[in-house]
Amino acid sequence: MRIFTKKLPHPDLPAEEKAQLLLNAEYQETMVESTFMYLTLDLPTAPLYKDEKEQLIIPQVPLFSILAKFNGATEKEYKTYKENFLKRFQLTKLPPYLIFCIKRFTKNNFFVEKNPTIVNFPITNVDLREYLSEEVQAAHSNTTYDLIANIVHDGKPSEGSYRIHVLHHGTGKWYELQDLQVTDILPQMITLSEAYIQIWKRREEDETNQQGA
């Protein structure tokens, strides 16, 4: 993965001083190559609001919207105690398996908050080619992934529980596991859950050909 970083002047500085600082080498964009074990997907802020019937509405976001973080163009501001940075990310290689960690929890000095936004995602045929840098796209003949496992967090951050959805490769059926209980689950029900961690498997050439037949 390529990580592009650009330091930002302090927001309270006068505009002329900011412009002068941006000319310094310290404030120029830098790029580093980095390996990764999983991809963290940031959820948008999720205000819970009520409809005209005073019923709570749970916000939703498409998977591809939060994957845009890795398209090489989307910038996000990161703040430290003393400095602010703009960062953007671009994938340079796609492994056989990808792990997505959907960032539902944020922690401050007092408590942990959970973002309940539902991520809308397809179970199969997720193509990540557009998130690769142009020069390495040719080296990836297959960039399509299928979901094989989905970890869900239910409830409050401090009192919640976990469920796991697992694909049985031999039968193509999905199962839900919670503690020692195993039950069948329909694929369309998986997409309605508060997904937290997902494992995706890249298709092999023969699998892609079968899907296209």
* Broad shape: globular
Spell out the CATH superfamily: Cysteine proteinases
How many domains? The number is 1
Instruction: Please give the radius of gyration in angstroms.
Output: 21 Å
Q: What's the count of strands?
A: 18
β content, as a range?
35-45%
Judging by the overall fold, what is the CATH architecture? Alpha-Beta Complex
Give the end-to-end Cα distance, rounded to a whole number of Å: 33 Å
Main sheet specs? 8 strands, mixed
Instruction: Indicate the CATH topology.
Output: Cathepsin B, Chain A
Judged by helices, strands and strand pairing, the structural class is mainly beta
Return residue spans where pLDDT drops below 50 for at least 5 consecutive residues: none
Organism: Nothocercus nigrocapillus
GO molecular function: cysteine-type deubiquitinase activity
InterPro entries: Papain-like_cys_pep_sf (IPR038765), Peptidase_C19_UCH (IPR001394), Ub_carboxyl-term_hydrolase (IPR050185), USP (IPR028889)
Catalytic activity: Thiol-dependent hydrolysis of ester, thioester, amide, peptide and isopeptide bonds formed by the C-terminal Gly of ubiquitin (a 76-residue protein attached to proteins as an intracellular targeting signal)
Give your account of this protein's structure:
It comes from Nothocercus nigrocapillus. Keywords: Hydrolase. It holds the Pfam family UCH. Residues 1-203 form the USP domain. This protein has helices at 15-21, 63-67, 134-137, 187-190, 205-212; strands spanning 2-8, 30-33, 39-42, 49-50, 56-57, 60-62, 76-79, 84-90, 97-103, 105-107, 112-114, 118-120, 126-127, 144-154, 161-168, 173-178, 181-185, 195-202. The chain is mainly beta and 213 residues long. Strands 3, 9, 13, 14, 15, 16, 17 and 18 form an eight-stranded mixed β-sheet that branches. Strands 2-1-8-7 form a four-stranded antiparallel β-sheet, with no helix packed on it. Strand 16 and strand 17 (181-185) form a beta hairpin. The mean pLDDT is 87.
